[in-house]
Amino acid sequence: PPTYNAGSEVYSRSICERLSHEHEVHVFTREEDEYRLDFEVRRDLRNGIPLTLVNLPREKDGYEHPKVNRAFRELLESFRPDIIHIGHLNHVSVGIVHEAKQKNVPMVFTLHDFWLMCPRGQFLQRNFDGENLYALCKGQEDKKCATNCYKMKFSCHPKDEEKDTLYWTNWIARRMEAVKKLIPHIDFFIAPSKYLQNRFTHDFIIPKEKMDYLDYGFPTDYLQPPVLPHSGIFTFGYIGTHIPAKGVNHLLEAFSNIKKPAVLKIWGRPIGQNTASLKRIAATISNPVEFMGEYRNEEIVKKVFSHINTIVVPSIWGENSPLVIHEAQACKIPVITADFGGMKEYVRHQKNGLLFQHRNSNDLYEKMQWAVENPAKMKSLGEVGYLFSADGQVPEIGEHCEALIHIYTKIIKEKTNAKRTLENNH
């Protein structure tokens, strides 16, 4: 952030800034500058935290980049970290894990989605048949991945179908093999939802003893209920990117059926034709739909929560542990979300929000209509806040980082003891 502002980036910034109060932190990541060479390395400083940024503007599906590995190796040699905390490997390189292994640096990996299990990260199929758009995927299979999610990379000429299918099936197989080889080298995995933890231990190859659940932490200094709560016409809010996986079109469809005066405010960075298409849909709706653009996360209360009655999280994939749900609960804003994945883990129907049937815009409409008709009840649901604390408060970033330090210390100690044992045996 502020270049990229999705959940994993916001979380990474939060822990880096907090940890930097007492520890030395360095961030290795990528950026997308179309006017500079691929793999060019740039240094930056943000909020006192040094960054090493590798330029990868044209890379979308690659997973092993020797030039990225070399840049990471040079950082390891100059910075000499005690531990590496991986937030994601997508758009970087799986080879950085092997570089760290060569240097015997302990590694912790926070799982934000399914990228290790699914080449596209969301178990959401990218069908290229003109039908069945964004169908949920029940599990990774090499050939299915090739024909459902990578078919747009085929020539699409019927005579090439067999060859293209074979090529991309083999590509997926190599990619999955490369990822699975990482698992023994990662010392510990953190899952921010029980749903994600269960998926990775039951459906993948991460041993249960190498993973634990730890919800995200939040800078609650600015996540406080609005001083002047929103009043007036009932207002729904959406925060997030304007991509199909987020289900914004389902939200608009549901909102179009609301029979009482209401407003829908949509926050998020515009994305070209995606946003233009959503605006075309919004233009057909009688109740007002307002596109609010971006905001600085520190201003989420002033710019967002002060202007809405409830937040809607309509994602069509199995979201892990959406930050927006927690942020809303910290500010006593009720949440309407799907009964699926990590979304339903943090919202209980008629307890601290409303749940609708996943990917069902008609059911979402019914829940939104109920909210408009019961504003006082919705407000009381919001007052409950976070379900897993006595006072309804979300995990505070300081306490969360203390838990991270405990994990780091434990892993470092185990790694050191194992090294000494090996040396003594020799």
Kindly estimate the percentage of residues that lie in beta strands according to DSSP: 5-15%
Tell me the Rg in angstroms. Answer: 23 Å
- Most strands sheet: 6 strands, parallel
Shape summary: globular
Q: How much helix, percentage-wise, in residues?
A: 25-40%
Task: Figure out the total of helices.
Answer: 14
Mean pLDDT: 95
Can you tag this structure with a few keywords?
6-stranded parallel β-sheet; 426 residues; 4-stranded parallel β-sheet
Structure description:
The protein has helices at residues 7-19, 66-79, 95-102, 142-149, 161-180, 194-202, 248-255, 272-282, 300-303, 323-330, 343-346, 361-373, 375-384, 397-425; strands at residues 27-31, 41-46, 49-55, 84-86, 107-110, 188-191, 211-213, 235-239, 263-267, 289-293, 310-313, 335-338, 353-356. The chain has 426 residues and is α/β, with parallel strands linked by helices. The strands form three sheets. The protein has a six-stranded parallel beta sheet with strand order 10-9-8-11-12-13, with helices on both faces. Strands 4-5-6-7 form a four-stranded parallel beta sheet, with helices on both faces. The protein has a three-stranded mixed beta sheet with strand order 1-3-2, covered by helices on one side. Helix 11 links the parallel strand 12 (335-338) and strand 13. Helix 1 (7-19) crosses helix 14 (397-425), helix 4 (142-149) packs across helix 5 (161-180) and helix 7 packs across helix 12. The chain starts with 6 loop residues before the first helix and ends with a helix. The mean pLDDT is 95.
